[in-house]
Specification:
Blueprint: E1 2-5, E2 11-15, E3 18-21, E4 24-27, H1 32-39, E5 47-53, E6 58-64, E7 72-78, E8 80-87, E9 98-104, E10 110-113, E11 117-123, E12 128-134, E13 143-145, H2 166-169, H3 174-179, H4 186-204
Antiparallel strand pairs: 1-2, 2-10, 3-4, 5-12, 6-11, 6-13, 7-10, 7-12, 8-9, 8-11
């Protein structure tokens, strides 16, 4: 597999090598060792999720308090989505920047995003199915959202009429979330990730 860092620090695009023949195909969609080598520490697997969405559904932008936050490894096992990573870390050089990656059941790419980054997606097909590997379990008291249609973010969602959940439609803008103190701090996120790397190093030793 090939791992490519995105323009937002802490986010990676993963492209697997597919092996096909008349029977079908085989691929490694997640490699513990390759990801750890790239990001500096292993991904702790605490929870796995599946999300199924109709075309034009937009979910996000979701994030969690740091520490511990929630790192995610996301791939599309059916259909296609535009997967979006947003830098919500106050003080980051790329604060407010977003990058999108098409995830589908053809190229079978994945996206990894570190703790403190925001995540969302737009379903490009009906029954678009995402699989998530998460570093922490769901904690509703520590979960937050930024409005996906916030003009300051300016995300170019490929949907004629984006379909949002009631929660996402009521989410604050980036500026409102920052003013309310909901957004993670860049330095806090960096220190937390550094502790993960240090812990991994001491375990390996």
């Amino acid at each position: 597999m090939k791992l490519r860092p995105l323009s937002v620090e802490g986010a990676w695009e993963i492209t697997p090598q597919q092996h096909g023949d008349p029977r079908g195909l085989f691929l490694e969609w997640y490699r513990f060792d390759r990801l750890a080598e790239a990001v500096g520490h292993p991904l702790r697997l605490a929870q796995g999720n599946l999300s199924v969405s109709a075309r034009d559904v937009v979910r996000g932008i979701h994030f969690a308090d740091v520490p511990p936050g929630q790192a995610k490894y996301v791939t599309c096992v059916r259909g296609a989505v535009l997967d979006v990573v947003v830098d919500l870390r106050v003080g980051s050089p790329t604060f407010g920047r977003w990058e999108g990656v098409r995830l589908d059941d053809v190229d079978r790419r994945a996206v990894y995003l570190a703790e403190g980054l925001g995540h969302g997606f737009c379903a490009l097909t009906d029954d678009a199915t995402l699989s998530y590997l998460c570093s922490t379990t769901y904690n509703p008291s520590a979960e937050h959202a930024v409005h996906p249609l916030d003009e300051e973010l300016g995300i170019d969602w490929p949907a004629t009429v984006p379909q949002l959940s009631a929660r996402d439609a009521a989410a604050p803008t980036l500026a409102q979330a920052r003013s309310a103190g909901l957004l993670p701090e860049y330095d806090t996120c960096r220190r937390y990730v550094a502790t993960l790397a240090a812990t991994a190093g001491s375990t390996d030793g």
